[in-house]
Design a protein that fits this description.
The protein is of the alpha/beta class. The protein has 10 helices and 11 strands. Bound molecules: 1,4-dihydronicotinamide adenine dinucleotide and oxaloacetate ion. 1,4-dihydronicotinamide adenine dinucleotide binds next to helix 1, helix 4 and helix 9. This is L-aspartate dehydrogenase.
């Protein structure tokens, strides 16, 4: 499987250093970034090709892995899907724009393309998906990150945001894609709180779900990526596992 990557930052670097062609026949061949130097550096490191012409790349890929920004998804996903090429998308917040969501869903359906959204920096999506249509009453996400991760210069704990996921992704497009992932898993605009906390050095995501099934809570205490403290290691690792899982005969979990 030939893979092209959009965005050559923290996540792409981790993925490119962990996936080798001998693994499940996955070859990460093309590297595209609006910053050409970043694309060239990662392509050189990974033995791939830095992409200057995005459209030309689409003639030689089976899957495009986006790890750039919600804006890149809005700009480039339609082009990829129109060619019937599957995608993995990390910047899931883009799909909280309902007009865009409907547009890409239709393009994907018309062209028999599939969009895969990794669980990313959180755990618990399996349970949320399972109970979504079976009396799920309440889902909340509380995210706690350091001032460095949230790009704030703050000495005391502060609530930066309290509201719906659709608004959270607008105000923090590079920090709270996980809220969009949960919302899409249960088909509702979930409640989100974002806290900046000078006493943590992890990216912490606490999910609570309540309903007819009972209740569960998951807490993910992520190590941030060295190259980008906004982003958790788990986000990149989940994409690696998703890529490898396409080849599995027996799938475990949802
Ligand atoms: N789903 C999830 O759980 C998570 C999602 N993310 C999201 O994944 C994405 C990538 O994260 P990182 O690798 O940490 O980011 P990063 O900032 O380290 O790298 C992003 C790269 O994409 C490039 N880029 C941005 N917009 C572009 C565009 N329109 N066209 C081409 N290149 C573009 C940048 O130049 C940069 O090199 C971000 O949107 C981030 O918010 C991050 C963590 C968790
Ligand atoms: O990596 C994380 O902890 C979460 C994150 O940045 C996002 O959801 O955009």
């Amino acid at each position: 499987m030939n893979v092209g990557i959009i965005g050559c930052g923290a996540i792409a670097n981790i993925i490119a250093s962990r996936i080798v062609p001998e693994d499940n026949n996955i070859e990460i061949k093309y590297f595209y970034d609006k910053d050409v130097e970043r694309a060239e550096n990662l392509a050189t490191f990974a033995g791939g090709v830095a992409v200057l012409d995005f459209d030309a790349m689409l003639d030689d890929v089976d899957l495009v892995l986006e790890c750039a920004s919600p804006d890149s998804v809005k700009l480039l996903a339609p082009k990829v899907l129109e060619k019937g090429i599957d995608m993995i998308v990390m910047s899931i917040g883009a799909f909280m724009d309902t007009g865009f969501y409907t547009k890409v869903l239709n393009i994907a359906r018309e062209n028999d393309a599939h969009i895969h959204l990794p669980s990313g920096a959180i755990v618990g999506l399996d349970g949320i998906k399972a109970v979504a249509d079976f009396g799920l009453k309440e889902v909340t996400l509380v995210t706690r990150k350091s001032p460095k991760s949230l790009g704030k210069d703050i000495g005391t704990e502060e609530i930066l945001f309290e509201g719906k996921a659709s608004q959270a992704v607008k105000e923090f497009p590079l920090n709270i894609n996980v809220a969009a992932t949960i919302s899409m898993a249960c088909n509702r605009d979930i409640d989100v709180k974002i806290i900046v906390d000078p006493n943590v050095d992890r990216n912490v995501h606490e999910i609570t779900a309540k309903g007819d099934f009972g209740e569960f809570k998951t807490i993910t205490m992520n190590h941030p990526c060295a190259a980008n403290p906004k982003t958790s290691m788990l986000a990149a690792i989940s994409a690696i596992k998703l890529l490898k899982s396409f080849d599995e005969t027996i799938s475990v979990g949802l």
